[in-house]
Amino acid sequence: MRIAAFAATAALGIAVSGCATVVDGSSQSVSVATTPVQGAACTLTNSEGSWFVTTPGSVQVHKTKNDLTVTCTKDGFQPGSQVAISKFGGATFGNLVLGGGIGAIVDAASGANYYYDSPLTIPLGEPKAAAVPTSGAPVSTQIKPGV
């Protein structure tokens, strides 16, 4: 009876090892919007790579324990930037309880036990001042003698 219980527990542990990897995957869709206008070109970067999206939009990023930096640019505005903090997901706790450390190690290696908040709203900087056009002609001042 003890051997059967041990075997069942071991089989369950093997079955759920890497649970977050199986349930949540190692990538995540992150939605990005900008204020006060949309149509900005955004770059999302973490230790696994860089991804690009035009707002409003979503992009699949690889999850990791490292934070995700989002930088957005739009003509007429100063760039905007924000850091999405990498957060520890709860699925890994199931591995520790049911499967032991093997599943937690698999999840950590794949990035599956982390996630980023989504959607993200990135505030663009102040509007850039419009350049005053010049005619290109030199400005001269004429002084009349004796006046």
Mean pLDDT: 77
The side-by-side strand order for the widest beta sheet comes to 3-2-5-6
What is the radius of gyration?
27 Å
- Termini separation comes to 120 Å
Q: Give, in order, the helices and strands.
A: HHEEEEEEEHHEE
Q: Percent of residues in beta strands?
A: 25-35%
Percent helix:
25-40%
Which class of secondary structure composition applies to the elements?
alpha+beta
Largest sheet: 4 strands, antiparallel
Helix and strand arrangement:
Elements: H1 2-16, H2 19-23, E1 27-35, E2 41-46, E3 49-54, E4 57-62, E5 68-73, E6 80-84, E7 87-88, H3 91-99, H4 101-110, E8 114-115, E9 120-123
Parallel strand pairs: 1-9
Antiparallel strand pairs: 1-4, 2-3, 2-5, 5-6, 7-8
Q: Care to describe what's here?
A:
- By secondary structure, the chain is an alpha+beta fold.
- The chain has one domain.
- It is 27% helix and 31% strand.
- It has helices spanning 2-16, 19-23, 91-99, 101-110, and strands spanning 27-35, 41-46, 49-54, 57-62, 68-73, 80-84, 87-88, 114-115, 120-123.
- The strands form three sheets. It has a four-stranded antiparallel β-sheet, with no helix packed on it. A three-stranded mixed β-sheet has the order 4-1-9, with no helix packed on it.
- A hairpin with a 6-residue loop joins strand 5 (68-73) and strand 6 (80-84).
- Helix 1 runs antiparallel to helix 3 (91-99) and helix 3 runs antiparallel to helix 4 (101-110).
- The chain starts with a helix and ends in a 24-residue tail after the last strand.
Give me a quick take on this structure.
By secondary structure, the chain is α+β, with helices and mostly antiparallel strands. It has 4 helices and 9 strands, in the order H-H-E-E-E-E-E-E-E-H-H-E-E. 27% of the residues are buried.
